[in-house]
Amino acid sequence: AHGHGGYDSDFSDEESGEKSLQKTKRIQEDALLVKPFQKAKQGSVVHRQFAAEECDREEARKRRFHLISMDAYERHKKFVHDYILYYGGKIEDFRRSGANDKTDLDVIRENHRFLWNEEDEADMNWEKRLAKKYYDKLFKEYCIADLSRYKENKFGFRWRHEKEVISGKGQFSCGNKHCDENEGLKSWEVNFGYIEHGEKRNALVKLRLCPECSHKLNFHHRRKEVKACKKRGTAEQNSKKPKKTKLSHSAKKKSKKKTHKDPVSSDSSDNSDE
Fold it and tell me: Which of 19, 26, 128, 186 has a CA 20 to 30 Å removed from the CA of 207?
């Protein structure tokens, strides 16, 4: 190296020597830190295919993390949107038809029975089991009646549920569906004939109605009225009392004739004594 004016400089040689010493020292330290099984660093540019694979792997990792952070519905919407974006189509094509959807109430209405017997419980699927479970929760002492078509001699009956039992509907108030009268209730026993699942059946049911609704029930012919039985104690007391025998009209006449004859017989007896 030449200084300014063509003179040599010893300082430049010393600086280059110090740099080479530092470089060799750094290389030695790096060699000490390298583990035996560690691969050597590549100084050259990596292959294009390797770089593309690494890029795809990193992109897949980010996409996987994004999908995991979404819930099932959001993930479904994203897949549908991507399908329409790449393959075309309309969003209406992916909307499911709800024409055949059924709620629990629809299933119960289709499989409900007024009375279950052993034959009905023979072949049970989940729909019938659901209807039977609902049937077991009903109270079957008194019925609720629909008398709206009483002039056609057509009546509807159903069992009471828990809220109606608590409120007293059908027992302490009129059992008509559209009546809440509490006074003058009477109990009636009705032979209920109905068609259920194509089969005709009969059931003997009991209900309590007010006088007006009782007239509707008996509009065509009178049903059997259920009266409360007397207590055993009062019945025994009535049986112990002496019963008065009723005389017929002819017997009464005979008794009157005997009373008229008695004084004559008494006079004759007096004369005989004299």
Answer: 128
- Cα 245 versus chain centre, distance: 65
**Is a pLDDT exceeding 80 seen at residue 149?**
yes
User: By the 8 A CB rule, do 91 and 77 touch?
Assistant: no
| pLDDT at res. 183 | 92
Kindly state the percentage of the chain with pLDDT values over 70: 71
DSSP character at residue 152 = G
User: What is the rounded distance in angstroms from the CA atom of residue 206 to the CA atom of residue 143?
Assistant: 6
pLDDT tier at 264, thresholds 50, 70, 90: very low
- Please give the DSSP secondary-structure letter assigned to residue 145: E
Locate 3 and state its tokens: 């200084």
Biggest alpha carbon–alpha carbon distance for the chain:
210
Residue 59 to residues 48, 53, 64, 69, Cα–Cα distance (Å): 16, 10, 9, 16
More confident residue, 70 or 93: 70
Handedness of CA 108, 114, 116, 120 (dihedral sign): negative
Q: How far apart are CA 261 and CA 267, in angstroms?
A: 10
Q: Is the Cβ–Cβ distance between 180 and 170 less than 8 Å?
A: no
* SS3 (DSSP) at 159: strand
Q: Are the C-beta atoms of 207 and 142 separated by less than 8 Å? A: yes
212-222, pLDDT tens digit by residue? 999 999 998 88
Spell out the domain ranges in the chain: 59-94, 138-226
Which two three-digit tokens encode residue 192?
């209920």
